[in-house]
Write a structure and sequence with these properties.
Blueprint lengths: L2 E6 L6 H14 L4 E5 L5 H11 L14 H25 L3 E5 L2 H10 L4 H7 L8 E6 L2 H8 L7 H4 L1 H17 L3 E5 L4 H21 L1
Parallel strand pairs: 1-3, 1-4, 2-3, 4-5
Helix pairs in contact: 1-9, 2-3, 4-8
This protein binds adenosine-5'-triphosphate and magnesium ion.
């Protein structure tokens, strides 16, 4: 069996940056790595990006055009494809799967949108839990500074209040799901990478030897 690691955190926390570095780290150690993300690059994922994340004419500004429930179901449909077609087969093949966001994002964001947490957990029950979830935690103010320069800003990162709620939700989820580990994402990129690899070694390699 392979290893399944997830990077989580608010918009601009550094997930994509750290996911790439972690993938390289594993590759340098001879592992076969599958670096993936949610929403995915499949038709479902593209639909979500068009409808939910980008906004504009066809988009949904602050959930005005599509119900919160439908939004959650779209993310879950994309995830079901992701799990069945890529994540599960890759883990079974002994690979290291690193996902930039996963169902923990749905819990944190859609819960912040006002959906019931248990409803969301049940909806996502088909999705296997990760071996390790790295939660990159930082104040919303800092994350906004980091993503300010982006040309397309998603609906989510326009709304500071929502981001604050999402950050709090992630921290609450860390108490509920014991695979979640909190990393201080305010540090320089290289320091965070070192913290993450130390965590991976401790949680996935040293403990496995016990
Ligand atoms: N530790 C860091 N310190 C300062 N800047 C950083 C750090 N990590 C990442 N950045 C920068 O912050 C920006 C956001 O990083 P990144 O795209 O990795 O975040 P993300 O969590 O993937 O964001 P999103 O949720 O929007 O995809 C990038 O411009 C990146 O270069
Ligand atoms: Mg990213």
């Amino acid at each position: 069996m392979g290893i399944f690691i997830v990077l989580e955190g608010i918009d601009g926390a550094g997930k994509s940056t750290q996911a790439k570095m972690l993938a390289k780290w594993f590759e340098n150690r001879g592992y076969e790595v599958v670096l993936t993300k949610e929403p995915t690059d499949t038709a479902f994922g593209k639909l979500i990006r068009r409808l939910v994340l980008i906004g504009g004419k066809e988009g949904i500004i602050d959930g005005a055009r599509i119900s919160k429930e439908a939004e959650a179901l779209l993310f879950a449909a994309d995830r079901a494809e992701h799990v069945k077609k890529l994540i599960e087969p890759s883990i079974k093949a002994g690979k290291v799967v690193i996902s930039d966001r996963y169902f923990y994002s749905s819990l944190a964001y859609q819960w912040a949108r006002g959906l019931d947490l248990d409803w969301l957990i049940n909806l996502n029950a088909f999705a296997p839990r990760a071996d390790l979830v790295i939660l990159l935690d930082l104040p919303v103010k800092e994350s906004i500074n980091r993503i300010n320069g982006r040309s397309i800003r998603s609906e989510f990162d326009k709304i500071v209040e929502l981001q604050k709620k999402v950050r709090k939700n992630y921290l609450k989820l860390a108490e509920k799901f014991n695979e979640i580990r909190i990393i201080n994402a305010l540090a320089p990129v290289e320091d965070i990478h070192n913290d993450i690899t130390a965590l991976v070694e401790h949680e996935l390699f040293e403990k496995a030897e016990d």
